[in-house]
Design a protein that fits this description.
With 206 residues, this protein is mainly alpha-helical. Helix content is 61%, strand content 3%. β1 and β2 form a beta hairpin. α3 crosses α5 and α6 crosses α8. It is globular, with a radius of gyration of 19 Å. 20% of the residues are buried.
Length: 206
């Protein structure tokens, strides 16, 4: 099987579908639409949200063990209907959410939460040696991100930490692309299909 046939029969369809999902997520970041996660509308995560989740050692953003309490905390922290107050109305919303989550399988909720995070960090810079390591561990990447966006836009720190991360990551890509020119390398989740294709083609030819 030659390269063109291998790509067309095994990789082209999956690559195109993933590319379409990526573009849809990028557009959604500028519309402030929630991400439906296990049936719950979750806001787009901001740097402020990430700092709070990191401080609470949420396993969705930190390498720690997962419990049902962690799942409930994460869904409530990011929930569109959480207004951030301690009012009786907000406490009732939280109680209702926990009841809805309690009847769903734990593994399903964890997977849904992780998929939400994958969408949020889709365009983040690689966090390790592999381009596939997209989701940062901790918050060490926030300072350079805030400084770069502030220098380019004149926005205050408060404005930046309240801006959805998927939008900021796209701004950073645009900034880096302009600064580095032809040396800029872009990574997206769909690139894994290209890597798989090249590996399989290489193995086939050996």
């Amino acid at each position: 099987m030659d390269a063109q046939e291998l790509w067309a029969t095994k990789f082209a369809k999956r690559f195109a579908e993933e590319r379409a999902r990526e573009e849809s997520r990028r557009e959604q970041a500028f519309l402030d639409l929630p991400i439906l996660t296990a049936g719950e509308p979750l806001r787009l995560m901001t740097p402020r949200d990430l700092l709070l989740l990191n401080g609470a050692e949420s396993p969705f953003v930190c390498p720690t063990g997962m419990t049902a309490a962690h799942v409930a905390l994460f869904f409530w922290a990011m929930h569109e209907r959480n207004d951030g107050t301690d009012s009786w109305r907000n406490r009732r919303r939280r109680a209702a959410l926990i009841k809805r989550l309690a009847v769903q399988p734990f593994e399903f909720l964890v997977e849904a939460g992780r998929e939400y995070c994958n969408e949020i960090f889709q365009d983040s810079p690689p966090s390790g040696e592999s381009a596939d390591e997209k989701r940062p561990l901790g918050t060490c990447f926030l300072a350079p991100l805030i400084v770069s966006v502030a220098l380019e836009t004149g926005w205050s720190q408060s404005e930046i930490v309240g801006t959805p991360l998927p939008r900021l990551f796209q701004y950073m890509k645009a900034i880096r692309a302009r600064q580095l020119g032809k040396e800029f390398t872009d990574f997206s989740p769909s690139d894994r299909f290209t890597n798989e294709f090249l590996c399989e083609l290489n193995n086939q030819n050996n």
